[in-house]
Amino acid sequence: MATQVTATANPRRGSSFLRIAIALQTLTIFLQAVSAGLLLTSSYGETLHSAGARVMYGASMLYLLTAVLAWKPGGGSPRPVRHASGFLVLASVQVVLGIAHVPSVHLPLGVLMFGLSVLALARRGPLQ
């Protein structure tokens, strides 16, 4: 009797990369809050906040990429992909609102995004 061996990606490794991506996203959103405070108090705050927006958006795309890579080869749940996709949509709306200078929605959405990112990080467990 022959046994068939299939090559699968290490799910623990994919999960670890996913946690790192979520942690990076959470950190960039936190730094956006700091740069928003600098935006109000210093001349270079706008430059920092603008650059940080690009980094935060890149971190959201990285989160989606790692979620897809952790899901597809390992055959895991597509749930992290849905979460990452939703987060990328929120990040896109956040960027549009920031460019349009709509702080009445931009600020609460930023707080919501930070909370959701912390929640996603807590769900994934501690970094190892």
Describe this structure in words.
- With 128 residues, the protein is mainly alpha-helical.
- Helices cover 79% and strands 0% of the residues.
- It has four helices and no strands.
- The protein has helices at 11-41, 45-71, 79-99, 103-124.
- The longest helix has 31 residues, at 11-41.
SSE sequence, one letter per element: HHHH
Low-confidence stretches: 5-9
Terminus-to-terminus distance: 40 Å
> What is the overall silhouette?
elongated
The radius of gyration computed from the alpha-carbon positions, rounded to a whole number of angstroms, is: 17 Å
Mean pLDDT: 87
Structural class category: mainly alpha
Largest sheet: none
> What level of helicity do the residues show?
over 70%
Q: Report the strand count.
A: 0
Number of discrete helical segments: 4
Range of strand content? under 5%
Describe the structure concisely.
With 128 residues, the protein is an all-alpha fold. It has helices at residues 11-41, 45-71, 79-99, 103-124.
